[in-house]
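Please check this.
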Amino acid sequence: MPSPLYAFDFTLLDGSPAKLQDYAGKVILVVNTASQCGYTPQYAGLEALYQRYRDKGLVIIGFPCNQFGQQEPGNAEEIGAFCQKNFGVSFAIAGKVDVNGSTAHPLWSYLTRVKPGLLGTRRVKWNFTKFLIDRQGKVIARCSALTKPEALVKKIEALL
């Protein structure tokens, strides 16, 4: 039985459609991102992970979000230029989404439901919250913004 995760679609930063089904059989790291956040330098760590493990089956998808301190005010073109110029991002970046509340993207509603945070909290607390998904589409871990990308190496290697 396929994972419910693979039923979700999203839009890439360039406006083209994408389906999580296209990543079935890969290890996926989903992250909500922002360009003007204290955690923004994590883009460099995410890109390093992607470069190190993409050929082994790691996919990273960044989801820009402006719900935390208005730290992602740019449009798609500005976000893409920022990520490329400052961090050389080559992993997938989605179009801007909400991750909390009634306007949350359905993928994020799903992720927070199946892998709640501390004390069962569903709400994403800040930018750069990370969800690690195995090759079968099971959400394995939820990590806060405090978890640097390089801290996920052992978990990622175990799934690859």
